[in-house]
Amino acid sequence: MMTCTVLRCCGVIFLTHLFFSRTVAKEFPTLDHIRTKVDDGTQQRTVEDMIFRTVGDRFSDFSVTVDSSFMPSGKEAFQLDTVDGKIVVRGTTGVAAAHGFNHYLKYYARCQVSWTVQQVDLPGVLPPVSPAVTIVTSNRYRYYQNVCTVSYSFVWWDWPRWERHLDWMALSGINLPLAFNGQEAIWQRVYLSLGFTQKDWDEHFSGPAFLAWARMGNIRGWGGPLPPSWHQTQLALQHRILARMRNFGMIPVLPGFAGHVPAAITSLYPKAAVSRLQWGRFKDPYCCTYLLDPQDPLFSHIGGMFISEMIKEFNGTNHIYNADTFNEMRPKSSDPSYLTKSGAAVFAGMLAGDPQAIWLMQGWLFVSDRDFWQPAQTKALLQSVPQGKMVVLDLFGEVEPVYNTTDSFYGQPFIWCMLHNFGGNLGMYGTVHTVNQGSFLARKYLGSTMVGTGLTPEGIDQNYVMYELMNEVAWMPQPVQIMDNWAADYAWSRYGVKNANASLGWQILLRSVYDCEKGFKDHCDSVVVKRPQLHKTQRSWYKPEDVFSAWDHFVSASNDLGLVDSFRYDLVDITRQALQEWAYMNYQDLMETYNTGDLNKFRDAAGVFQQTLTDMDRILATHQNFLLGRWIEDAKSLATNDQERSLYEFNARNQVTLWGPNGEIVDYANKQWSGLVADYYSERWALMIKTLTTALMEGKKFNHTAFQQDVFQQVEKPFTLANKTYPYYPTGDTLQIAKELHQRYRRRTW
Ligand SMILES: *[C@@H]1O[C@H](CO)[C@@H](O)[C@H](O)[C@H]1NC(C)=O
Ligand SMILES: *[C@@H]1O[C@H](CO)[C@@H](O)[C@H](O)[C@H]1NC(C)=O
Ligand SMILES: *[C@@H]1O[C@H](CO)[C@@H](O)[C@H](O)[C@H]1NC(C)=O
Ligand SMILES: *[C@@H]1O[C@H](CO)[C@@H](O)[C@H](O)[C@H]1NC(C)=O
Ligand SMILES: *[C@@H]1O[C@H](CO)[C@@H](O)[C@H](O)[C@H]1NC(C)=O
């Protein structure tokens, strides 16, 4: 420890001299072709159309110019001005202009466009921008998506939903998004020409809700096979998505070949060198995927075929490809030369299809298995390709950054990312402090090779505030100085009206539940959503009273803001969070009464606990974004026949509950949604309470193993196979129910 510190200090003193004249992070000319190829006029028209979709007729109050020569201090920028009563937006790219328009919406017109709720009630006369404002970004790339986001959040989307989301990306200033749809259709062609049969790839691809993990070689076949109509739909979507991304001036990242192949490789190419990788608790036949040996000449052959086929299908490329060979899976050897060869093979595969390829790699493996990825192993993989030909995502930058333990990824360019979310869980959580400061520290790091910032959530549609903050930080010259002011601005734009109670509510939340100091890999471990057990402790980095007091303020604001949809969304969310706190307190009572063995008191406590879950389902039912019915019906709507319909429904249900045939990662992607709370979480608790009641009555001990088997057989598995229809539209009035619950729960103990 001591030695390290001293060496570090010496390094700093010595290196400061060398790096002193460098004022900005290192630039990488190797990346100069990773930029938009679309002309300014097309980007401008694409932004104009987006403005029309966003504000309708009022689009004529805005005038947009995209001008690639507009580069104040050599950086991407936007400028806002008022000329003849019109708001004039100028941007280096379509994305910069769209982000400038969004900046105007938030900070002048007091509007907010976010994932599923938006508030774009423009003032009759638009407030002028005077004097003109120019904002530049030091972040050459603003990356977006985790490889899992497509499965946890986008999987059932149709084009209208995608179109809105692409608008959101542009408004958010994102210029480097993943574009992963439809890749299985391309793989099918490649496998066909290599001699594989439909049966071979049917066993290899997973079902729609699990594609992310099949692509990474974590699992194979689970939830499949993919019907032909799936490929057609996804291919058609990908054409539209790519065209729109490119026309906005974004640089879509396409998939590359990471080495995972169908099992039939062993019979079809008996000489091929393969190994198998283990992921989590998955077993045959869903594990383990075959990994082609990097030294096998087939590796770059397949990699090249895939890239070529994709370029042909999607009319060109922006030359950047993602591939993750060892995501959450230990390589078969820790010998650095093996790792170097593996990396070189992945890159050779890309080059075989595109001589200008750049490899984008998630740096998650370095976080998830630090024991394996010691400096020698990390360096071997990172330096397996020439400097500047790989871009690494420092995926969990806000909690466990890797750049500062690897001399800035041993010289490879990296993007500092906020991961924030796992499994699309809904609990309130954030690390405001490190999200605000982290990317600036990374840029200032000695010899920093940082080339941008990013968002890498596993799932979206939760904790909107953290994403708004990060998107703004990417365009700021320094961190937000006074977070309370930012919170007040956030509330004002989100609801369109200045309201002191709403501001206070957000200020409390940002200082408390959103300011988790340490950050966690699993932040939503509420007793509500986890499989019932005795004496479970819940992680808490904040005082539940903070949530209740914020809840008071939101309820107070509801008289003024009750008609605003984004406010209703937030009122549901804070009520949900408050009830989650209550559930934990009630759970503790339940455990206490169980321990004392007083059956009557236990029954009373059980009644209170179950009532809280019922109340939670009721408030969630009042807003469309908290409905299980949306998730399932959207899944079914992509089906073209009954068989597909039940396959998609099963995929949708299994992902958010058992996650695997036997609950391999049960509850990982838990969601506090109406329908799921009532028919899954509550039902599990009903069984637990019944079991505990019997134990008390018969004077027996609770058998956890037996309960796990029972809950799996009686509740969890049947739920994944069921086909009950859940409402697609909300029921009940948010305001009235939130007020009623607030009355009831707040009066009880305070
Ligand atoms: C393909 O891309 C080129 C420019 O790279 C463009 O001119 C052409 O219109 C595109 N074709 C299609 C079908 O999108
Ligand atoms: C790296 O940076 C993070 C965030 O600033 C910090 O918590 C951590 O201690 C640093 N690690 C090292 C080895 O300096
Ligand atoms: C918040 O709402 C309460 C109850 O409606 C009201 O009495 C109070 O004045 C409000 N607080 C502020 C700061 O506006
Ligand atoms: C608990 O249940 C399991 C599974 O039913 C059983 O094998 C085990 O013997 C039980 N343990 C006790 C202590 O009864
Ligand atoms: C729902 O499941 C039941 C029982 O398994 C079955 O009889 C029924 O046909 C299913 N309904 C639909 C619409 O699939």
TrEMBL record:
Biological-process GO terms, alphabetical: system development
GO molecular function, one term: alpha-N-acetylglucosaminidase activity
Residue ranges of domain Alpha-N-acetylglucosaminidase tim-barrel in the record: 142-476
Alpha-N-acetylglucosaminidase C-terminal domain ranges (all copies): 486-743
Domain Alpha-N-acetylglucosaminidase N-terminal: 46-127
Highest taxon of the lineage: Eukaryota
Enzyme Commission number(s) from the entry: 3.2.1.50
Keyword Glycoprotein attached: yes
Keyword field contains Isomerase: no
Keyword line: Glycoprotein, Glycosidase, Hydrolase, Signal
Family annotation (InterPro entries): Hex-like_dom2, NAGLU, NAGLU_C, NAGLU_N, NAGLU_tim-barrel
Catalytic activity: Hydrolysis of terminal non-reducing N-acetyl-D-glucosamine residues in N-acetyl-alpha-D-glucosaminides
Signal peptide start and end residues: 1-25
Family of this protein: Belongs to the glycosyl hydrolase 89 family.
Protein name per UniProt: Alpha-N-acetylglucosaminidase
Native source species: Branchiostoma lanceolatum (Common lancelet)
